[in-house]
Amino acid sequence: RMEQLSDMANGQTYTSNGYQDNNNESDRVPELRRISSASNFYDWEAVKNRYKKFHSDPNVNYFWRAHTITCLVLFCATLLYLSVFETSSFDTEYNTKRGLLAVILFFLLYGVIYTPDGPFLRPHPAFWRFILCLSVVYELGLIFLLFQNASDARHMLSYLDPELGKPLPEKDYGGSCLIYDPANTTDPFHNVWDKMDGFVTMHFIGWWLKALILRNYWMCNAISLLFEVLEYSLEHQLPNFSECWWDHWIMDFLLCNGLGIIIGMKTCNYLSLKPYYWTPMWNIPSYSGKLKRMVLQFTPYRWTEFDWSPTKSLKRWLLVLLLIAMFLLAELNTFYLKWVLWLPPPHPLCMARLVFILCMGATAIREIFQYTDDSSCKKFGRQAWLLTAIIVTEALICVKFDWPTVSKPPPTRIIVIWSVIISLTIGWTLWHFCLKQLIFAGQAELKDQQAADAVAAAPKSRTNRRRKDD
User: Fold this and answer.
1) What's the rounded Cα separation, in Å, for the pair 398 and 238?
2) Which residue range is the domain that position 462 belongs to?
3) Is the dihedral of CA 268, 272, 275, 278 positive or negative?
4) How far lies 147's CA from each of 230, 323, 337, in Å?
5) Tens of pLDDT along 321-372?
6) Where are the transmembrane segments (predicted)?
7) Within this chain, do residues 319 and 242 fall inside the same structural domain, yes or no?
8) Beta-carbon neighbour count of residue 42 at 10 Å?
9) Residues 401 and 429 both lie in one domain
10) Tens of pLDDT along 398-432?
């Protein structure tokens, strides 16, 4: 039933002769809704992509099954080996680490098998179930850290890596802001080359991926612009935010972020226009075709455009504002966590967190968009709920562990800038969603009343003219 629904949503009907295109656009959506009602299931994504070319084989193969019995047997066999045949250790620290790791792995295994599927199917639904369960583990770890003090939390990280837990100097990106230094005859552009580190490439790749997640030019540029303003606003707290003006606006905002957003949105357009026809690998005769199919397994199953339309309704506008605020808070957490937990920027933990946040964010933003756009969706998505809790918990850790830094008052000019931004946002919201509607509604009501009065006065004028004629 779901496969039939998906095929009808994309203009195809399954008959005895195979899949046939249904060119009658007027009959497509009513039939789709009839099947949805009969099965008590409404496929919002299928309706949204009903005019795109899409076909997938309805058969469920070995690769897509849960394998619950196989996983249970392997898990019990592993426990049997570790508890009976392996030599016991009397090292308390070693046993504690292994016990905690075993508990986490069991939770992840159970969650991957039995957690409901998310909105994404590629490369495999189990991968996104794993991300969801790992989000729970990460949030539990953050909550545990939140109830420690800063010194103990830093010391606990040394159990993961002995090199952690040591204070690290933060690099100052300000320094000399001369683009061309005539005093340095050997390399007058040395200030520019000093800023060209590995983080420039990370900025570009990061915004390319963020554009694939948000799928909206306006939101991407708004977040990019506001984060540069936040760096200006918080450079009195973190030296890492102290950068030259051209580093902020030319290298970061225009080049790295801007090019990443443009290429990301071009990628979104390509993925939106391309047809999706999925053929099982065993139905492909050539080895080159099978290899290509394996590579395509890591591409989207189908692509849904995100038409956020923030000014369409007050609910959409507030959700978009909240999404931008949480996005910016997650970006700030990256820098403040490194500062309060003494994590060096090149450390694998920092990179792992960024990749993990991107994976969670992809699913969370897809769920938030459906919650915004789908009138039948009444519940906040699981991954969106978890990611929101994670971002808030990370921020609370930063506030608790280094309150003297976080509570440093900003300069007066920063207070003025943010007061203007917030006031303009509130003022425009009130105008667009309240005052504008009241004014135009009043004008329309006045015009209707005048038209009604004119219609009512017309018979009286004709009667008066007749009396004068008589």
Assistant:
1) 12
2) 418-470
3) positive
4) 28, 27, 16
5) 999 999 999 999 999 999 999 999 889 999 999 999 999 999 999 999 999 9
6) 62-84, 96-114, 126-147, 317-339, 351-372, 384-403, 415-435
7) yes
8) 17
9) no
10) 999 999 999 999 999 999 999 999 999 999 999 98
